[in-house]
């Protein structure tokens, strides 16, 4: 069964109210284009890199204005929405970077907390310490949808192939990779990593991205990208401006790719070299 997906590219502001006003028209545009599944980027509800300014704004996912607004839009438009991530508080009060999968009736059917924290000092002098802000998740997540099993990952996860293999072997033929990729690493690695994850697992990869220069001073790469299971680019927004990318997906092509190169079945356990 072929279905249409939309990747929404945003330049999320530094407050939830402004973020909802920014993303809602793009979600409406995606639905008007025939998308049954709409994927938004990492940090859809808020981007603010200053800890002292961000933390007071965070709420639980049940109270977050963007999550509530997108749940209402899912009902109104009759679509599924993968909020690439919402920065929210979990039950114990720790902040998490959480992808939320919303059904067309507004129900939250799955949540995935980002596993891998981006802690780095870039050659440009830019630094990131996600582990100082967010509690990492501890499990991979896939969910049943009308479009088949959907695997959930976020941004930096794309550098860890084992996550994608686990999702693919669990039955996911489509995997989301919402991101707020930095510009230096985006230019160097964004497309090649996403295509590699698609080829290794014979999966569709849906990477909705943040793009441009944000209120909090960060710059993100944009270039939202959809990749097919043979590693082919199905569509891209070749810029960093807000926009919508529409792509048609035939999940049967994942089965065809996996049959042609059965790497998932051929993998063997092994003992690593001595240290």
Can you describe this structure?
By secondary structure, the chain is an alpha/beta fold. It has helices spanning 16-32, 51-54, 65-77, 161-169, 183-201, 252-260, 263-266, and strands spanning 3-9, 37-39, 80-89, 95-102, 108-113, 119-121, 127-129, 141-145, 148-152, 174-176, 204-207, 211-213, 219-221, 225-227, 233-236, 243-249. It has a single domain (3-264), classed as 4-Layer Sandwich (Nitrilase/N-carbamoyl-D-aminoacid amidohydrolase), CATH 3.60.110. The strands form four sheets. Strands 5-4-3-2-1-16 form a six-stranded mixed β-sheet. It has a six-stranded mixed β-sheet with strand order 8-9-10-11-14-15, with helices on one face. Strand 1 (3-9), helix 1 and strand 2 (37-39) form a beta-alpha-beta unit. Helix 1 (16-32) runs parallel beside helix 3. The mean pLDDT is 96.
């Amino acid at each position: 069964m072929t279905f249409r997906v939309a990747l929404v590219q945003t330049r999320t502001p530094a407050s939830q109210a402004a973020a909802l006003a920014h993303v809602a028209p793009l979600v409406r545009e995606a639905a008007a284009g025939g998308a049954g599944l709409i994927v938004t980027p990492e940090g859809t509800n808020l981007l603010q890199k200053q800890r002292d300014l961000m933390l007071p704004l965070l709420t639980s996912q049940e109270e977050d204005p963007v999550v509530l607004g997108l749940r209402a839009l899912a009902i109104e438009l009759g679509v599924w929405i993968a909020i690439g991530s919402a920065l929210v508080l979990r039950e114990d009060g720790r902040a998490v970077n959480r992808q939320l999968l919303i059904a067309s009736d507004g129900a939250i059917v799955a949540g995935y907390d980002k596993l891998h924290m981006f802690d780095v000092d870039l050659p440009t002098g830019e630094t990131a310490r996600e582990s100082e802000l967010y509690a990492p998740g501890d499990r991979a997540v896939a969910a049943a949808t009308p479009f088949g099993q959907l695997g959930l990952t976020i941004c930096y996860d794309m550098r860890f192939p084992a996550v994608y293999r686990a999702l693919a072997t669990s039955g996911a033929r489509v995997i989301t990779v919402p991101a707020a990729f930095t510009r230096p690493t985006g230019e160097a690695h964004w497309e090649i990593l996403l295509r590699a994850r698609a080829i290794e697992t014979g999966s569709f990869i849906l990477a909705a991205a943040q793009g441009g220069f944000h209120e909090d001073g960060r710059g993100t790469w944009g270039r939202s990208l959809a990749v097919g299971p043979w590693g082919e680019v199905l569509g891209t927004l070749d810029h960093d401006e807000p926009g919508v990318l529409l792509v048609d997906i035939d999940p049967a092509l994942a089965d065809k790719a996996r049959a042609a190169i059965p790497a998932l079945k051929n993998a063997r356990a092994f003992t690593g070299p001595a240290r």
